């Protein structure tokens, strides 16, 4: 049953004002008291603040417009800011990749070689000769087409930004349509806008990452999976398999997660709420302990894990970091105002802060779904939980890329959780305590 609407325009505006106040307060605090830190004013204030203003204005506009117009806003938002970020990187960092492009350079090098190979089988053979994992086949093969139909690197990068922006718009459509299984139209549109206008997209689009295409495939797979569960039409089952299998060429463990949700659906939807709570709590504790064990007792394994993910920071072995990582799996990534070794995180602070603040609703949504046995939301809830457990074990909760795959679904669950939290007697006290705790945590995380 779809709950009634609890969103009014004034309610949403009040939330936007509160979010704006908190963001500006944090920004002002770090500028005044830590103005000698390594991030430059451009990195710490100018670029993030421009992204923040674009997000606030585009979100407010999207709320007023209908869903189709909101999709157009999302596409234009991504195109304008991604192109702007691309030229910012070119002139400010003297590199089209910008800060910490991770595997974007590898994909670019693959695509440069693949563009002159006429056949798909030949392109696959080349990737095999380079010892590329199957999870690295998907995006280079897509880039191969981009490079073949452009005459210069600059044209190829601009075309890729347009395709990534289009992919975000398409993913936003799937987010809205998936949300409509549980939410009214206005609520589903809120989830759609939260996803489509997130500032992480601007960085990943501009430096040539695979996330936009990859997450579109995941969200489409979840949408058609729900179509199959609800309508039992075999065309939806075929589409579900097609999109699930396509994720194999981007990140194989996501394929496994989706297959588990599809095939085990008759089993996990019959589990009792008490048993599910025990399983969730037990797995979380076990994951936290495992992450500590890997980081301290098996440092070589930790190095291999982080090297494979091209994360030079690694996991760190301190108990404090492990505990922070465990909580960050649920509410992170935390906003980064000072850590200059991950400068890309400075640019998407508006997203990180928003994600941290609304995680209260996502967590309450997970709690409500399991406590009340809302089986319709089990696949989304369990997909989110599996992703959280994975980033906790590998100590990647501070890196947005490894939790980013679940974010469209997390925003849907957060909107649902917000509706249900409004029914809770002590919701104002809970919201105040959570927000205050997160602000203290953010301050401590940055000045530690």
Describe this structure in words.
The protein is 75% helix and 0% strand. It has 448 residues and is mainly alpha-helical. The chain has one domain (9-447). Mean pLDDT is 85; it is low at 307-316.
Topology:
Blueprint: H1 9-33, H2 41-64, H3 67-93, H4 104-114, H5 120-129, H6 138-148, H7 153-179, H8 185-196, H9 200-207, H10 211-231, H11 234-246, H12 252-263, H13 265-268, H14 273-297, H15 299-308, H16 319-331, H17 343-347, H18 349-371, H19 378-393, H20 400-403, H21 407-421, H22 427-447
Keywords:
448 residues, mainly alpha, single chain
Q: What is the string of SSEs from the N terminus onward?
A: HHHHHHHHHHHHHHHHHHHHHH
Q: How would you sum up the global shape?
A: globular
SS-derived structural category: mainly alpha
Approximate helicity band = over 70%
Mean pLDDT: 85
Percent range for β-strand residues: under 5%
What is the straight-line distance between the termini? Answer: 46 Å
Task: Provide a short characterization of the protein structure.
This protein is an all-alpha fold.
């Amino acid at each position: 049953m779809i709950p009634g609407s609890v969103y009014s325009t004034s309610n949403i505006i009040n939330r936007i004002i509160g979010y704006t106040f908190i963001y500006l307060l944090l920004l002002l605090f770090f500028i005044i008291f830590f103005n000698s830190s390594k991030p430059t004013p451009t990195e710490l204030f100018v670029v993030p603040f421009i992204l923040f203003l674009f997000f606030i204005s585009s979100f407010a506009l999207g709320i007023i417009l209908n869903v189709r117009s909101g999709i157009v806003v999302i596409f234009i938002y991504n195109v304008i800011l991604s192109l702007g970020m691309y030229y910012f990187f070119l002139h400010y960092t003297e590199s089209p990749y910008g800060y910490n492009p991770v595997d974007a350079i590898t994909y670019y090098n693959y695509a440069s070689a693949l563009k002159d190979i006429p056949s798909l089988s030949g392109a696959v053979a080349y990737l095999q000769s380079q010892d590329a994992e199957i999870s690295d086949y998907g995006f280079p093969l897509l880039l191969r087409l981009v490079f073949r139909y452009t005459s210069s690197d600059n044209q190829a990068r601009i075309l890729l930004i347009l395709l990534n922006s289009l992919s975000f718009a398409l993913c936003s459509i799937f987010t809205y349509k998936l949300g409509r299984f549980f939410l009214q139209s206005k609520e589903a549109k809120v989830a759609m806008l939260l996803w489509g206008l997130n500032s992480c997209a601007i960085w990943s689009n501009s430096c040539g990452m695979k996330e936009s295409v990859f997450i579109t495939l995941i969200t489409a797979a979840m949408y058609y999976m729900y179509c199959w569960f609800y309508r039992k039409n075999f065309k939806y089952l075929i589409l579900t398999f097609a999109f699930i299998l396509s994720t194999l060429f981007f990140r194989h463990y996501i394929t496994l997660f989706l297959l588990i949700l599809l095939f085990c659906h008759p089993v996990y939807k019959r589990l009792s709420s008490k048993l599910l709570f025990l399983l969730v709590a037990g797995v979380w504790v076990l994951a936290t302990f495992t992450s500590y064990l890997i980081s301290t007792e098996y440092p070589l394994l930790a190095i291999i894990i982080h090297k494979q993910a091209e994360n030079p920071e690694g996991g760190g072995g301190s108990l404090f970091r492990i505990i922070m990582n465990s909580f960050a799996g649920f509410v992170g990534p935390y906003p980064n105002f000072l850590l200059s070794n991950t400068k890309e995180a400075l640019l998407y602070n508006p997203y990180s802060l928003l994600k941290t603040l609304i995680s209260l609703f996502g967590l309450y949504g997970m709690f409500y779904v399991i406590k009340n046995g809302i089986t319709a939301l089990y696949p989304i809830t369990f997909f989110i939980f599996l992703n959280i457990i994975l980033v906790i074990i590998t100590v990647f909760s501070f890196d947005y890329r490894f939790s980013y795959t679940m974010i469209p679904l997390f925003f849907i669950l957060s909107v649902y959780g917000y509706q249900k939290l409004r029914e809770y007697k002590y919701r104002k006290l809970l919201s105040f305590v959570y927000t205050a705790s997160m602000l203290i945590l953010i301050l401590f995380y940055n000045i530690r």
